[in-house]
Amino acid sequence: MTTTSSDVGSGRPSAGIVVLLWVAKLVAAGILGYAAILKLISHEHEIEIFTTLGWEPHGRFLIGGMEIVSAIMILVPQSALYGAFLGLGVMFGAMIGHLTALGLAGIHLALLVAVCCVIILYIRRHDATFIRNLWDR
Amino acid sequence: MSNANFDLHVVARMTNRLIVGLFGAFLLAGMYIHFSFHFLTVFFLMLSVMNVFYLRVQKKHAILRNFGVLGQVRYMLEGVGPELRQYLFSSDTEERPFNRVERSEVYRKAKGVDSAMSFGSALNYDATEIKIRHSMYPTAAEDLEPFRITVGEERGLASAYTLTRPVMISAMSYGSLGAPAIRALGRGARMAGIPMNTGEGGHPKHHLMTGADLIFQMGTAKFGVRDEHGLLDDDKLRDLAALPEVKMVEIKCSQGAKPGKGGLLPREKITREISELRGVPMGQDVVSPPSHAECASPASTVEFIQRVQEVSGVPVGIKFCVGDPEEVRVLLEEMNHQRIYPDYMSIDGGEGGTGAAPKPYLDGFGMPLLPALCKVQRLLAELGVRDKLKVFAAGKLINAAKWVHGLALGADAIYTARGFMLALGCIQSLQCGNNTCPVGITTHDPDLQHGLDIEDKAERVKNYVEGVTHDFDELMRSLGVRSTRELSPAHLYVPPASILAPEIGA
C-alpha cells in the first residue's frame, strides 16, 4: 500500500555527469598540484618565471600555496565548488601573466584547468550554500 | 527595489560597468606598474564573468538578469535571513511554532535550572491568552493525590497500563528521528517513568534497546506489522505486542501535522537500515496511504479496533486529528452500537507536529487542539462514552500551564513530542525533513549526530519531565484541587477573543 512519489527537483546526477565531474576534478587537481609542487620546491623554471614577473620568491610561494589548496579542495567533495572557484581565479592570473609578460608557451595548461574548474562549478553549483536560495526557488 | 531618490537599477548598471572598467584599469596597472596589481585584475575579471552569466546566460532569476552581482546580494541576505531573524531581530514572543519564551522555559527545565522570571508576563496578556483560575483556598501539599490513571481498566484487562505522570512522549519514529535521539529519549523516559510512543517507523528496534515502556504506533502503512498487501498481519502484531516493553498499541488514523494524509518520510532520510526496518525502497520519498485499508466506514473501523484489541492483548487506542466533529459522533455511535470501545483516544491538534508535511496540510488542515478537545469531550459525555475510555491530548502542550489547559478541557493525560525535542536541545531551525538538523536530532548524518550526547540528553529529558511535573503539582495546589479528575473547563479563564471562547461559552 505504500506509494512512492516521483523524483522531483535536483536528485542524483546521472552516471555520465558524475564521470565528467570526476575527470574534470582529477585533471584540474593533477595539473594544479603538479604546478604547485614545482613552485614550492623552487624548480629553476619557476624561479625564472617569477623573476620575470618581479614576484620572486614570495609571490611564487603564495601562488604555489593557493594552487595546492585549490587542488586539495577540488578533490574533497564538500569543498569542490570553492576549490574550483579558487583554482579558476589562479588560472585567470596565470593566463594574464602569459598574455602580458611570459609569452604564450604553456598557456594551454592554464586554459585546460580553467575549463575543468568551470565544469566543476557548473555541475556542483547547488552546493553554493551561501546563495542556496538562488537554486532552490 | 527603487524609489524616486535612489534608483537601484541605475546603481547596478553603473556598478556593472565599473567592474569591467576596473578590470581594464588594473590590467594596465599590472602591465605597466607592478605585476601585483593583477590580483585585483583577477578579482574584477571573476566578477565580470559572473556578471556575464547572471545578465546574459541564466534566465531563471529576473533580479540577476537586471542587476547582476549586486542582485546576488539580495539572495545572499535572504539566505541568512532565518538565522539573522532568529538571532537578532525576532522578539521573544513572535517566532513560530514556539517562541523564545516558550523554548527557553523548556531548556531551563531540561537543564534543571530555575525558570522564574521577573517583571511580568511577556505574553499578550489581554487579548487571547487563556488563564488558569486559581483558588483562594489552595490545596495543602499533603492533600494532593499522586497522579494515577490506568488505561484498559474499563475492559478489566490484566495488561492494563498505569500512568503515574500526566505526560507521555508522543509519536516520533526511528526515521523521523535519528538513532541517538531515540536512545536519549528512551533512556530519559525510563528514568522519568513515562512511556514513549514509537511512531509509525516499523519494528521499534532502537526504542526497544532503551528499555522504556513503549506504545507501539501502527500507522496507515503498518510498518513492522504489515503483510505483503499492506494489510495487518495478525501474527506480527501478536509477536510485537508480546514483548514486555510494549505496553499499548495505538492505531494512528490521522495526525495533526497532515490530517487526511499518510505519513511522509523524505528520501534524504532513508538509510539502508530504515529501508529494511520499514520494507521500503531507498532514494524515494515514502508516503503512507491516507487511511487504514481496514477502516473504510465507522463500522469497519470499530471492528478493526476490536481485532487489534483481541490480537494484541494490550490496551489499544486510536489517534486522530478532528476534522468534522459529526464524523466523530458517528464513530462514537457505532462504538455504542457494537459495544466496542478503544481503551483510549488521542486527540491531535491541527497545529502540526514533528512530522514533515506538505505546507497546505501543515497550515491549513484540522481543528486546533483545544476546541477539538472540547467538542470531543462534549460528544463523549452526550453519548455516554466518556467512562468507557481515556482521552489523551497532543498539540504544543509543552509546559505545566498548557497541561492544565488540556486536562481541564477533558483530557486524562498529555502527549508531547516537540516539548521533548526541545528538551533534547532542538533549536527550532525547521530542518527536520532535510536530514540536516544542526543539533543531530532529526538527522541520520553521523557528523551531525556527533553533537548529541546520549547520556547528557537523557538526563535532560528526565529533568524536563520532573521539572514540569513539579510545576504542574504546584499549579494543581493553586487551583485548589486534589486530583486531575476535579479539573473542569470552569478552571480556565477564556478571553472572548480566544478560539476557545465559542466552545465553552465564555
Overall description:
The complex is a heterodimer of chains A (137) and B (506). Chain A is an all-alpha fold and 137 residues long. Chain A contains 6 helices and 1 strand. Chain A has one domain (30-136). In chain A, helix 4 runs antiparallel to helix 5 (107-123). Chain B has 506 residues and is α/β, with parallel strands linked by helices. In chain B, helix 1 packs antiparallel against helix 2 (38-57) and helix 7 packs across helix 18. The mean pLDDT of chain B is 90. The longest helix of chain B has 26 residues, at 454-479. Chain B contains 19 helices and 14 strands. Chain A binds chain B through residues 1-5, 7, 11-12, 53-55, 59, 85, 88-90, 92-93, 96-97, 100-101, 129-134, and chain B through 27, 30-31, 34-36, 38-39, 41-43, 45-46, 61, 64, 72, 75-76, 78-80, 220-222, 226, 229-231, 280-281, 283-289, 293. Strand 1 (3-4) of chain A pairs antiparallel with strand 9 (286-287) of chain B.
The fraction of residues in strands of chain B falls at 5-15%
Structural class of chain B: alpha/beta
Uncertain stretches of 5 or more adjacent residues of chain B = none
Number of self-contained structural domains of chain A: 1
The end-to-end span of chain B amounts to 48 Å
Q: Specify the biggest β-sheet of chain A.
A: none
CATH topology of the largest domain in chain B: TIM Barrel
Question: If you compute it from the alpha carbons, what radius of gyration of chain B comes out, rounded to the nearest whole angstrom?
Answer: 27 Å
Give the averaged pLDDT of chain B, no decimals: 90
Q: Kindly state the mean pLDDT of chain A as a whole number?
A: 85
Helix content of chain A: over 70%
Low-confidence stretches of chain A: 1-10
According to DSSP, the number of beta strands of chain B is: 14
